[in-house]
Amino acid sequence: MSTHSSRRSFLGHAAAGFSTLAVSGLARAQAATEPPPRTGQAPLQVERAVAAPVSVEVNARPIPNFEPRDRSRTRFGSLEYRSGLVLTSAYRGFGGLSGIRFLDGKGERFLAISDQGGWFTGTIRYSGRDMVGLADVEAAPLLDAEGRPITEKHLWWDSESIARDGTLVYVGLERVNQILRYDFARGGTRARGEVISVPPALRKLPHNKGLEAMVVVPKGKDQDMPLAGTLIAFSERGLDADGNLVAFLIGGPSPGQFSVRRTERYDISDAVLLASGELLILERKFSWFTGVDIRIRSIPLKSIVPGALVDGPALFAADLGHEIDNMEGIDAHVTADGETVLTLISDDNFSMLQRTLLLQFTLAE
Fold first, then answer.
1. What is the pLDDT of residue 207?
2. Which of 148, 233, 274, 358 satisfies CB 3.0 to 4.6 Å to 85 for a cystine?
3. Closest of 169, 159, 227, 166 to residue 196, by C-alpha
């Protein structure tokens, strides 16, 4: 039996392969409490934090088929599989990638965040339409307003969400439910983060199920964008009185709170706003019996207003029979041929049985 087949079989028949020892990271991500720090040392979660800017060599292994059981299949719901990579590095701080945003319109230069309080920047290399590797990768610490790594502050290490508005980049910190704003025109990843004002209800989200996804509705002349200039922030599993997922409209013309209908026990892990005005939400759920499932739902942006309960159809779903892991980040770009390409990235929780995956799909018409 091949190494790949052995791994998938193990994952499928042993609660997705997650033993208590091997997936202490994923178990921690599911837990609702903070593990205590070890005496005289920093908390366990920041031991892999980036201390200073450093170049990182990242190795990439291609994923030729998204569903190994049927190698001829390329269509999955409304998505067509393009290519994928398994990313590894000898740099011990590489991993925990919880969000990704492209810095260009070509899907090449990227900005990613680690949930250990770090930036990762670099370039995706392509051969035709297939990703083949990463180049010029650099890691750097997220800085606070004083220019110090945010990991020096109590519980400020859990950077889980990222949104970009031109040169402004917003980062959500889940454990403290705060949002930092960085002006990349002032030093890029060396910029200092400014805490922005957020609704009191956002600060009260569960500390390990709080801020998990953010998007900015761009300003422009499009009259169909009533939320232009709004930062939309989604909780992972902050629930309203009816058990639906809480989200917030920050700034813009109509600030307030709304909910996303929660179905099949899925939680939100990221979101992306397409040029068409369609909002895509990346969701996942975890079970010790079935492992990890993911899906992508489409939400009409025009349905989002303060007090609304929004919902939309699932465009895509996958489980551990496919080449997925703990998928936590999503972004999109449009090719020269007019194709909308979705890029997904996974958080490996620094676990020996999890992987850092970079996957790309075409959104079919």
1. 83
2. 358
3. 169
Three-class SS of residue 103?
coil
CA dihedral 114, 115, 116, 119 (to 10 degrees): 30
Pairwise CA distance, residues 126 & 129, whole Å: 6
Model pLDDT for residues 265-320, shown as the tens digit of each residue: 999 999 999 988 899 999 999 988 889 999 999 999 999 999 999 999 999 999 99
Using one digit for the tens of pLDDT, what is the confidence trace for 314-351? Answer: 999 999 999 999 999 999 999 999 999 999 999 999 99
What is the C-alpha separation between 185 and 140, in angstroms, rounded?
Answer: 16
> What distance in Å separates the CA atoms of residue 56 and residue 92, rounded to the nearest whole number?
10
- Average pLDDT over every residue of 74-94: 97
- Which residues lie across from 81 on neighbouring strands? 361
Give alpha helix (H) positions in the chain: 3-13, 24-30, 200-203
